[in-house]
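Q: Give me a backbone?
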Amino acid sequence: MRTLVKIAGVLAVVLVVAAPTAWTLFLQSDRYLVLGAHEATVRPATDGHATLDFGALLPQVRVPVDVPGDLGVSIDLGDSQGAGLEEMLARDAVIASQPDGEIRAVRAAMVSMATSAALRGLGVGLLAGTVTVLAWVAVGSRRRDELGSRLTRPARSQVLIASATALVVVGSLVLVIVPGDDGQPTRRWVSLTEAFPELPADNAGLKTIQLAEGSATSSSRALVEGALYLYRDSVSFYEALDERAQQAVVRTPEEGQTTALVVTDRHDNIGMDPVVRTIADQARARLLIDLGDDTGQGASWESFSINSLAREFEGFDTVAVAGNHDTDSVAEQMADKGFTVLDGEPVEVGGVRFLGASDPRGTKLTGYTEDAKTRNGGLAEQDTALRDAACAADEAGERVGVLAVHSWSSGSEVAASGCVDLVLTGHLHYQVGPKAIDGPGATTTTRLTTGSTGGAVLPIALGSSLRRQAQVSIVTFDADGVPVGLQVVSFNPSKTIDVGDYTTLPLPSAGAEQAAPDPVEDPSADETAQPEQLPTTP
């Protein structure tokens, strides 16, 4: 019994020291991350709100968070790369219309800070417990008995000292655990509808937003109002498109078959992510194939695009390559999110054998970078290397079902070799195929280029609505992972959806059809050149 009492006493010491230490360390923690279009610093708060500070020129914004104990978060938003104030607000408004990916990133940062603080607090508590045990042993039983006998006849001064010590300890714990005045003036928060009564109050999300009253709210009124209308328009457009997607009739797999959804050239348009996820659910897909150009510049502020895709397709097996507008850091972020990033070697994912590699070029808004111009042979070299890898796998009895590359120029030799069943590409921003490419003997490879899933004009798709027609493709596989069917789904700026016919594979022999590269693949040509019958939409 005495042993249990001793153990309980040591545990009490550990907990009494560890709990307030961990809480203090947690409240003093911060994390740097890229949030939306901003560099940001995230800190815990105790007001039950998520508070966003845009700096002196814009009002602070907060929304309530449903977390026990009134725990909240304070987010200081820094610069947005390459953007003026008006452009930055437009970006923020559109990203805020699909916030789940960024909320997930903030939640992960908070969990990381809490875990780190808890471990450090526990370490301090264990140290205190160890010191207590060592002191207990060092004093010895004889000396403890002497001290015990004295405690049975305490002197008045000893009682006063013990009482004062207890008060100091308890008071210290209270000061540590209960947050005090941080010296900041008390802010008055007003609801968004109170600050902007002219805004339509038909959006539940807008009703929860509060602004800090002050000069920033008044002076930036026009900018904030424009951003709010953009936010509302974005939510309205993509919610309506998603409702249409729920009514779309796409082919579902037969017994023994599986399906995959193909996305490409999203170019930051996260508004389409819930819509294409709906199509994936309609087609009963559990595999996502991402052909790249998820961003416009591959800049760090565009990490929200990968965050959104990962959040929307959580639980899916995801195969991906980076496009010419994506940087190595984009591919690294894909891998961090659990995507299988193809690297030139065959790999099996979701029962399908894939081969592919990220685009070797680098492109900016103004054209191909100087570095890319010196690597124009990169596409041809990549095509040859992939052809060799595909044919080696075929000879080994491990035939590749799908070649996934961003550009057709990385897949033309592979298709002509007949060593793969299906070549999937993007890059052009409009559909090509499906069509058959004849290989040696009686072999046939199907080619399909899917249009921009983001509805991109040039490498820009981020906005409150589609700029032009957007597309995804659905690939059906048999029980052996062989592609047996294709279906293309198109989304129009008019909020209508066109579901293409289901095409059974393999296609008939193409006869004279050759696997020549498209003229548009010339680096000096417009990346988004397109047939006249497919006009862009402003």
Observations:
- Residues 100-152 form the longest helix (53 residues).
- The first strand starts at residue 31 and ends at 35.
- The chain has 14 helices and 23 strands.
